Amino acid sequence: MRIGSRIRRATAVTLSAALMLPVALASTGAVSAQDDSGGTFVAAWIGPCCLDVDTNNALAAGGDYHWWNKIYGRLFTYAVDVDRYGALTGDLATEWNVSEDGLTWTIKLREGVTWHDGTPFTANDVKFTLELCSNPTAGGCVWSFTPIVGIPEIQAGTATEASGVVVVDDLTLEITTAAPNSLLPDLLSEIFILPKHSLGEIPVDQIGASDWWTTQAIGTGPFKWSVYTPGQSIELVRFDDYWRGAPKLDGIIRRQFQDISAAIIAFEAGEIDMTYVTADEVGRLTDSGAGTIFAGPSGVNNFISVNPILNPELADPIVKQALLQAIDRQAIVDNIYGGAAELVPCLYGRKNLQGDTPMWDYDPDAAKAKLAEAGVDLSAMGEITWDTYYNDALSANVMTAIQANWAEIGLTVKLNPMEPSAWTQKWYDDGGSSMSLAGGANGPTGNRAYQYFHSSAAWPTGNNGFNGYAYSNPELDALLDAATAEFDPAAQDLVYQQACAILANDLPWINLWQSVRYHIVSNDMQNVILIPAAGGGTYYDAVETWTKTSS
Predict the structure, then answer these.
(1) 275, 266 in Cβ contact below 8 A?
(2) How far is CA 318 from the centre of its chain?
(3) Which residues lie below 8 Å from residue 351, measured CB to CB, with a gap of 6+?
(4) Is the separation of the CB atoms in 160 and 203 below 8 Å?
(5) If we measure between CA atoms, which residue out of 298, 258, 259 comes closest to residue 392?
(6) Could you report the per-residue pLDDT of 489-520, keeping only the tens digit for each?
(7) Which of 83, 275, 336, 504 has the greatest number of beta carbons closer than 10 A?
(8) Topology, domain 298-515
């Protein structure tokens, strides 16, 4: 396959981040802006977006982006454009420019930012975070920064410092990539910056399991860690020295619930101010007037992963194509989601990245023919345990429908909903999941595919998250490399369309659909900004301006 466009040389580009207060973003608030201060926002970060109160390592933030950005900051984030991502903007970074050869990015950091303990934030913290995340002995970090010079050596265990990350001074950083990389700022938006002076005192191989995450958790964000009650809640208090200004709320409490139904009951009883809502509850809650429904594209694809190490019979793309064609996806979208989901051919949920990549339409006869071609008898495999961290009734109905579809081609699966922390351990750390239903953020750009499917993103040791199954396709690697090297967005889209076609054929993940997601926020809250893709990526939600009319 021809790579869609030649690599363009980048001219020096300087971007500034002027986004300080959300005046232009107020249209996404629950009600009109108010000046009231005080009160505690109590919420359930639950559902397909999120993990739980006991998963506290921010290096493995996963679906908890919307929670952790209350405590930690990033170099870059995204503005909000109604119910979805807008333009890339700065958080801890104020300016960034790339050299003429497209290899070296100079990043200016924000002055006057302090950690929650009063220590100044500096470029050394950024370098520390990137190197820590890339160290396989640290445990937990799911992001790969292999485009940066020196990072692959850290991942391989042959170095502890990245030569491509240079601290020029306290507020200036230079990052050099092995090839031109137009999406480096987007990549850097994925990770929360951590404090070298505090977390760096812990031996690297002890950081992943350290109680630092539940006793100190020092960040630069608008709220500070206060009280952690295992299995029940986390309490944050206002950080008066937050660089955007002291938050109006006194604090935030994250409460844990057994399932979404329990959280909705608590919301209707006035015990919490926000929760995730499944599509089947939206009409009733809207009619009740109990709060404001926030709806929008999830930014997440539901997918099915199959472990080729535990199930070599399912490793063949032809077999995975058969599994997909055996699922009546459109019927599930129509009848279970009520039409509030859209089929996707690959990772990408946006049409400009999909191109004309065809879907694998529902066709059980074609699925059986593919299995015969591959010489695979699914009935001979016995019962396969199918894990998920989704614990809501809608997801159970989805899995039951797929279970019935698969029975028609001889595959028997046992549904196994799990607590998020247990699922994370099994899927990411242990590689022990035979099959799983999960969600993968498709991101504001096409760059997420690099993290998930580029062969260089596979960790050399035990981590089985993302590309831990060692999926590798040199043709896809070349396309993803070419896309990141392309500084023309339109030309970049054409490359990603070719990548989509490969992913649709190989199915490293069996992508199903991108759903509409819903949250409900109480009428006591003002100025709230919320993209329903709470775990879909980073965005600026201006939480320091949120207010509550009753405490």
Answers:
(1) yes
(2) 28
(3) none
(4) no
(5) 259
(6) 999 999 999 999 999 999 999 999 998 889 99
(7) 275
(8) Dipeptide-binding Protein; domain 3 (3.10.105)
Which residue, 106, 117, 115, 123, is CA-closest to 73? 115
Q: For residue 537, what pLDDT is reported? A: 65
Instruction: Report strand pairing: 383-388 vs 412-417.
Output: parallel
**8 Å CB contact between 502 and 473:** yes
Residue spans of the domains in the chain: they are: 298-515
> What whole-number distance in Å separates Cα of residue 307 and Cα of residue 309?
5
Mean pLDDT value across residues 160-167 = 97
The answer, yes or no, to whether residue 230 has pLDDT greater than 50, is: yes
CA-nearest of 22, 4, 44, 149 to 521 is: 44
Quick one: pLDDT band at residue 35, thresholds 50, 70, 90? low
What is the DSSP code string of 383-449?
EEEEEES--SHHHHHHHHHHHHHHHTTT-EEEEEE--HHHHHIIIIIS---SEEEEEEE--SSTTHH
Q: Is residue 319 within a helix (H) or strand (E), and if so which, with residue range? A: helix 317-325
Number of H helices, E strands in the chain: 18, 20
**Can you give the length of the chain in residues?**
551
Between residues 47 and 17, the one the model is more confident about: 47
DSSP string of 343-385, one letter each residue: E-SSS--SHHHHTTPPP----HHHHHHHHHHHT--GGGG-EEE
For 6, counting Cβ atoms within 10 Å of its Cβ (0-12 exposed, 13-18 middle, 19+ buried), the class is: exposed
Query: For residues 297 and 303, what is the distance between their CA atoms, to the nearest angstrom?
Result: 16
Q: Residue 183: name the closest of 542, 495, 541, 500 by CA.
A: 495
Reading the block at residue 401, the tokens are 């429908």
Residue 535: band (very low, low, confident or very high) from pLDDT cuts 50, 70, 90: low
For residue 27, the SS3 value is helix
Q: How confident is the model at residue 34 (pLDDT cuts 50, 70, 90)?
A: very low
pTM of the model: 0.80
Residues 400, 402, 408, 414, CA torsion sign: negative
- The 8 Å CB, 24+ separation contacts for 29-32 are 29/526, 29/527, 29/528, 29/529, 30/291, 30/292, 30/294, 30/521, 30/523, 30/525, 30/526, 30/527, 30/528, 31/292, 31/523, 31/525, 31/526, 32/526
Asked whether 231 and 56 are in contact (CB, 8 A), the reply is: no
Please count the CA atoms within 13 angstroms of the CA of 392 that sit on its side-chain side.
21
Which residue matches tokens 């096409």? 446
Structure tokens at 321: 């194509």
Task: Measure the CA angle with vertex 464, ends 421 and 538; round to 5°.
Answer: 65
Find tokens 């894990």 and name the residue.
Answer: 387
Residues 6+ positions from 74 with CB-CB distance below 8 Å: 91, 92, 188, 189, 190, 191, 192, 193, 538
For the stretch 349-373, pLDDT in tens is 888 999 999 999 999 999 999 999 9
Sign of CA dihedral 62, 68, 74, 77: positive
